[in-house]
Specification:
Oxidized Rhodanese, domain 1, five-stranded parallel sheet, two-stranded antiparallel sheet, 5 helices
Length: 135
């Protein structure tokens, strides 16, 4: 019984170390990329960029930044061909780590050179938004 408890403790501690370590690693990579931009800069320069909402479709439909396209992070590897690598890409969502991961993936795997992400979560966005109504 004590051996089983010890094994379970090791597994839980290992998982926690992995989870916290990956969180810090993503933040470190994001800082190194220098792609974080504040809402004001995002809004001023977004007309020259491809705006990508990384949230799932139902959340996107309920409210999104005007002019954004929906490419959920879970589908990014299947839909990255919808983006032009020669234009800047602006990412946003409800999770900064997800935005950084998407930026890393777009630059490392797919060769994009100008990828930025919104510093704050979308829920903090005060710029123009739109709802998608489906019939």
């Amino acid at each position: 019984m004590q051996v089983l408890n010890a094994v379970l403790y090791v597994i839980v501690i290992g998982f926690l170390i992995y989870w916290v370590g990956s969180w810090f690693y993503v933040r470190y990579r994001g800082k190194k990329m220098g792609g974080q931009i504040d809402a004001e800069t995002f809004e001023k320069t977004m007309r020259k960029a491809q705006i990508v909402d990384l949230r799932e479709k139902n959340t996107f439909d309920s409210k999104h930044i005007l002019g954004a396209r929906n490419l959920p992070y879970t589908q990014l590897k299947y839909n990255e061909g919808e983006l032009r690598p020669d234009l800047p890409v602006y990412l946003y969502g409800d999770n900064k780590n997800l935005c950084i991961r998407a930026a890393i993936k777009l630059t490392k795997k797919y060769g994009f050179t100008d990828v930025k992400w919104l510093e704050d979560r979308f829920s903090d966005w005060e710029g123009q938004t739109k709802k998608t109504t489906r019939i």
